[in-house]
Amino acid sequence: MATFDSITTELIAALEEEINAIKESGGAEQIRVHDGRYGGTAAGRFLYIFLLDTELNIPSDTPAQLCIDKDSHETIILSVQGFEMTLGIQDDLGPFIPKAVLSLSAYYLLEQLQRRLDEIRTGVLPAERDMCMRLFAFQANVSFPNVKPATSLGDLNREQMEAVNRSLGQRVTFIWGPPGTGKTRTIGALVRELVQRGDRVLVTSHTNVAVDTALIPVIKALDDNEIQGGAVVRVGALAREDPELQQVTMEAVLERKSKDLRQQQQALGVERKRVQGVRDQLAATIRVIETVEKSEQLVATAKIALAGAEQKVQEEGNAISQARKTLGDLHSKLQQAEAAGFIRRVFFGFNPEVIRRQIVNQETVITKLEAAYQVAQQERRAASVALSEAEHRQAKDRQALESLGPLPPLPELRQQLGEVEKNLKQLDEQLAAIEARLREMAATVIRDARIVGATLSRLVLLEELYRGTFDTVIIDEASMVPLPNLWFAGSRAQKRVVVTGDFRQLPPIATARDAEKYPLAARWLQTDIFVKAGIVEGRARLDDPRLCALKVQYRMHEAIGEVANMLVYEHDGNPLEHRADPKKYAHATAALPESGEPLVLCTTSGANPWCGRLDPGFSRYNIYSAIVCIRLAARALASGAQNVGLVAPYRAQTRLLQHLVEQYRLPGERVETATVHRFQGNEKDVIIFDLVDSPPFQIGKLLSGGWGSEAMRLFNVACTRAKGKLVIVAHHDYLSQKAPAGDSLATLLQYLEQHGKIMDARMVVQDYADPAVKIALGAVMPARRQLGNPEGATHFNEGNFYPAFLEDLRDAAGEVVIFSPFIAERRLADVITPLRRLVDRGVLVLVVTRERHESNQVTEELIRQLSTIGIKVLRRRGLHEKLAFVDRKIAWFGSLNILSHSRSSEVMIRFSQPELVVRLMELSGTVYLLKQEERRSVQKHRLTELADALKKRMAFPSCPLCGGTTGLRTGKHGPFFGCASFRNGGCKGLINIPRRVLELAVQDLELTCPHCGGKVVLKSGRNGAFLGCSRYPDCRWTDSF
């Protein structure tokens, strides 16, 4: 039986699986952003809107650091809309930031949510346990007795009034608000009624945009006195500048309530600044006096040193004079000795040889004395210079002292400094006390507010919120909210929980999608609260008293609303009724394409475009349909549409579309690009929905499925974002043929055939020979560099392609990569000689072709021959791309199989602009392939070195099965000794390498970490041995053998 504790434990474990999945996927911790423009201020922060290179799934209110060059700034992520990210930054960074890096933890908020859930499970944090159980339908819902229904609810329609009164009368209420049905207006009336009845209300959702949208009608429903008095408080940074929201931010309310305290703080701050100036002046004066005293001591010391040096010079000079006199006497004595006879020499003791030795010794003494005299003179000069410098410094210091005028004695100055510092400390204590009172007042502002608006992330992070209590918690856009967040939000409600949203739109986004690997994440993170609570069991349970269904839509053209009815709401028995004012969308319907038509199917079947797929990965892109979408968007803007949304199922396509938007300089404030998932909750005058899918692939999973599938939800979201015109760009013939009957895709296309206007995409982009294709291909390159139209991009047919291609190969120096789905003998013969020449010169030649076909022995033999001459061949399932890259400087792109086609009408386009070439390599997965090839090469070389190191440590053992020799091999659990005959289908004997021997052999290799330069050591995990950095956990680099 499910209990509060058991469910909470499972939710914590599900979050742990999601965290692990994010870690395994790489978790975007360093995000490059560019073209940041100033967007005003909100809630005390400076708003900056940056462009992204790819879509991100980051919760609102995630903390981060924005790094610009070497400077780092604390940042809050306020919202992510398509390829635009709004940041709230504490510092004013000017009007424009060309580029920056955003550093964050992709799972920080999940870890914080785990902590909060654990606190309510263990009782550290009080929780309304029964409310959570009722919200998730583990306990029966309860009605309040004798609740008087609201009567004066303004201009609400019947369903909206029923939703308000149902919410007042029971513990848990679900309000189903399909697009445009006035859900936020209903929330505003409900909150107003709750406050009048004495409730304290929390309005929350998963994004700042959703919270702001839900809070605006609440603010409008209150009078100005309530607003000014702090009845409503918006906690956290706003996602946009709005006067009504600005006045209810916590900062604005605190500013009003703390006016007197702020004035006192300001006065004390001024006084502190004055006292600090006095303190600095006294300290400077004391330093000058102390400096003068020190310089006088230096002069006295220098004089003593000079006198000593002069005395030493005099002493050394006297010693030299005496030594020279002695030398003269010896010379005289030598003359007498040489002139004397033998008898006289004997009688007087004259020995010329002895005297000569004495002369030599004396000359040596004089040489040493002269050297000492030179040293003494140098020391005297140095002492003289030192004295001069000391006297100069003394004069300068005395001048500085005299400029200060008459001064009291130094002890008296020091006493004054002590008194001033004591006064400064008292002022700091007073300011700290005021700051503490302001912090307490900030908490009081939240506690005293009758209505609090905050994101679910902020509810988890801010103690004043998660320790607070609320009578009613209203959770908007709940179909997108993960269940663990809803569980925690429900635990904060003492009386009731109101859940609003549309369960026929997209569910929460989770990284942990593998149900076998992440069973708890599949159970708790891949479904919405409406399903979990039993509101939806296949179809909506309209008779469930917890559910209030809104059905009158006020947003979109009736024809667009009928698309939603046909796809979704009629099946639930809750079809939309249309009461939108045509004045709100007439200008959009009148815009191009097909002026006056709200539904347009732009078919690309005539051009028969093929889509590509990013590798690694499965996200798809379609260059032709992307160009069509951009041209349609430009025409819509030029013909009266105020704004346009470009949506697609795949991230790769939205990334391509965003680059084209920037390349064609479409106004970013009027054109928004995003996947359907990221566009939920948004709306535009015109929506251009690119289905992308086309040959050679089957219809993707995102577009597959019938009523109730995620594909149905995706179509519902995409179509209902449009107010006045919905344009769907699709390969109609292909999709109609491939989509099974009953699938939402087939149903949508059939409906558009009957009720929409069909136009041929070739009226916009004729075919691949259209000059715009060449320009648009350049637009997929980095938007941060305004490259303009690519130069040197030229069309080739088969007749002139090969001479040009072989000319490019001739000058290759680094690498050549060829994507050719098929390989034929005749065509390969034309290019094999230059390719082999490149291999012999050390150039990497990589051929990517389709998977192995044993029935085609000719092709397999050709591939074997390529391998034997050093050309690396990779096999890719379902390959259809026709590409070639030379030294990352030249790219060939088109429809010609380079290694097989002959006598065909296919074409190729050549690019010679390095920036474009590198970007195309990234888009096609070639950069990834080269990195993988480089990694394999490194691992192979490292394995050879490891084998040599092991041989020095031990003898390779014999095979335990056949007695034959063994060699070093690797498997998923690391290196081992395997029988040498294994590769020929023989013996499968193996022996594990002793752990200590393997560890020492790795040490012998003296490998260094490529990330931080640390030492590489042997590591062990659940999958066996691997290499890791010795600086773990500071450095998390790892590699397999």
From TrEMBL:
Coiled coil segments of this chain: 292-444
UniProt cross-references to Gene3D superfamilies, sorted A to Z: Bacterial Topoisomerase I, domain 1, Endonuclease Chain A, P-loop containing nucleotide triphosphate hydrolases
Pfam families according to UniProt: AAA_11, AAA_12, PLDc_2, Zn_ribbon_Top1
Database matches in PROSITE patterns: PLD
Hydrolase is among the record's keywords: yes
One cellular component term from this protein's GO annotations in UniProt: chromosome
Record key words, sorted: ATP-binding, Coiled coil, Helicase, Hydrolase, Isomerase, Nucleotide-binding
MF terms in GO: 5'-3' DNA helicase activity; ATP binding; DNA binding; DNA topoisomerase activity; hydrolase activity
Gene Ontology biological process terms from the UniProt entry: DNA topological change; phosphorus metabolic process
InterPro entries linked to this entry: AAA+_ATPase (IPR003593), Coronavir_polyprotein_1ab (IPR050534), DNA2/NAM7-like_C (IPR041679), DNA2/NAM7_AAA_11 (IPR041677), P-loop_NTPase (IPR027417), PLD-like_dom (IPR025202), PLipase_D/transphosphatidylase (IPR001736), SF1_C_Upf1 (IPR047187)
UniProt entry tagged with the keyword Hydrolase: yes
Domain of life: Bacteria
PANTHER family noted in UniProt: DNA-BINDING PROTEIN SMUBP-2 (PTHR43788:SF8), DNA2/NAM7 HELICASE FAMILY MEMBER (PTHR43788)
Family to which this protein belongs: Belongs to the DNA2/NAM7 helicase family.
Name this polypeptide is given: DNA topoisomerase I
